[in-house]
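yo

u said u wanted the structure for the complex thing, so here. seqs first:
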Amino acid sequence: DIQMTQSPSSLSASVGDRVTITCRASQSISSYLNWYQQKPGKAPKLLIYAASSLQSGVPSRFSGSGSGTDFTLTISSLQPEDFATYYCQQSYSAPRYTFGQGTKLEIK
Amino acid sequence: EVQLVESGGGLVQPGGSLRLSCSASGFTFSSYPMHWVRQAPGKGLEYVSAINSNGGSTYYADSVKGRFTISRDNSKNTLYLQMSSLRAEDTAVYYCVKVGAYAAVTTLDIWGQGTMVTVSS
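structre next:
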């Protein structure tokens, strides 16, 4: 199975900060990498697909990059509604998707 | 509006069975693969099972293989997960999820609200 490792596991930041979350795959997955946002008590929401493409309706302050084994999710200027948990997910071995363990983004 | 609505969760004793249902609307259900993804309390997301669009191919995580069965009824726009020999570690919110394809990469693009399954005596 392909393992996905996110760092950090948690992160404290302030409104207006630039934040980067990293996701590493245990083997090359090309650009088969998606990012999701989950708020407490809610289902996850697709943010970015194919490593760097923004899902429709997602604000442009979110961006993704990377290929192969190393990927990043960047939020250019944190807004209050961005405080949530973020997950990466590989679809290289579809349909047996695997997720990272999550990164909880908290208000400083 | 594209929507997935799960039902069937609840409290069940260890060793018991439960069937989850997921009713789909707002899209051509029969055209898309579907997944079940679960999330234990305070934990991350875990792939459970997947089924292709016509129901002819099914896939399971090792943790549920032989105990869970995924199926679908395209005439009723409904996805199912039959769970048996339930264990405490199966306690989780179970999400029904639609697969989307974007730029040749598959994603989990539409999620239901989830249904809670609690396995406890």
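Chain B touches chain A at residues 33, 35, 44-47, 50, 52, 59, 61, 95, 99-100, 102-109, 111-114 (CB under 8 Å). Chain B is about 0% helix and 55% strand.
cya
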